[in-house]
Amino acid sequence: MRNSIMKGAVLLALGAVGLNAPARAQDVADFYKTKNVELFIGYSVGGGYDIYGRLVARHLGRFLPGNPTVVPRNMEGAGSVRLTNWLYGAATRDGSVIGTISRGVPFDPILGRPGSQFEAVKFSWIGSANDEVSMCMVMASTGVTTFEDLKKKEIVVGAAGASSDDDQFPRVINAVLGTTMRVISGYPGGNDISLAMERGEVQGRCGWSWSSMKSTHAHWVKDKKVTLLAQLGLSKHADLPNVPSIMDFAKTSEDKAMLRLIFARQGLGRPFLAPPGIPAERLAALRKAFDAAMKDADFLADADKGKMEINPLTGPQVEALVAQVYAEVSPEIAKKVAAMLP
């Protein structure tokens, strides 16, 4: 999939290049010299999206013309649907407001999710800091040691909201593969779910990004406090050769197609976006600054210090991936997957 994204991205990137680049660059610098850039994060403080959002906020301004200060702000709610709707319908469209949202939210309209008041293909996509593999995992105290055990014993898993990975993933896995996870949804963010696991309110989480878990709770794995049951994505992570992929458990071509729809979002990883219709020269500047930050030695050292993976996609690549999923999914498969969600 990534190769096809690259091909489409070349054409999309060419469209962002203006004929009067020097003049436009000066206009962009004049604009950002007098502005702070607000970077809204669709989850509460302390979780994976918040950590990646604040990392980007610390460095992005160095690469924008005019060197504005980038101020991170949290707007949690409904697994970042609240922020997504606000960015689409209410946020200022001048390039001074950007955000980071759940990688799954852009595909909510395909699934007919209630509350989705946006068209994902119209957003101004800036880039993604990583592509992702997520984990289905439980506390070791549950006695569950394999994915197949989830078919025999009900496990309570925590989730952030109806559009979040950790809500949708276990529901689809239950319906397609016959597991019996019970989802408790509505936590403000990933850190809140981790605390709920420690308190015994929930027993696991099925949709926790490995990059986030590794950066915030690596000791849980090292101390065998949790058991990793399956990797959730279209491919396996190099760190985890002995943990099975969820795709290994699909029995039929239809099962595989439904799992591919729900896990295609993993390629978006940690997406950053701006409202639709921002000035083209400012979108080009935001994309160029994002790409430069992803390669910067200080940025990468900061990420490494926090044990955060960086495997970026450009804005045109993210834009192409979103468009590709919308173009390729069949209505029949989308309808079946939608029926698995509340």
Written account of the structure:
This protein is α/β, with parallel strands linked by helices and 342 residues long. The protein has two domains: 2-131 and 266-331, 3-Layer(aba) Sandwich (D-Maltodextrin-Binding Protein, domain 2), CATH 3.40.190.150; 134-264, Periplasmic binding protein-like II (D-Maltodextrin-Binding Protein, domain 2), CATH 3.40.190. The chain is built from twelve helices and eleven strands. It has helices at 2-15, 21-33, 48-60, 81-89, 165-177, 190-199, 210-222, 253-263, 280-295, 297-305, 315-328, 331-339, and strands at residues 37-41, 70-74, 97-100, 124-128, 134-139, 156-158, 182-184, 204-209, 226-232, 271-274, 313-314. The strands form three sheets. The protein has a six-stranded mixed sheet with strand order 2-1-3-10-4-11, with helices on both faces. Helix 3 links the parallel strand 1 and strand 2. Helix 1 crosses helix 11 (315-328), helix 3 (48-60) runs antiparallel to helix 10 (297-305) and helix 8 (253-263) crosses helix 12. The longest helix is centred in the C-terminal third of the chain and has 16 residues, at 280-295. It is globular.
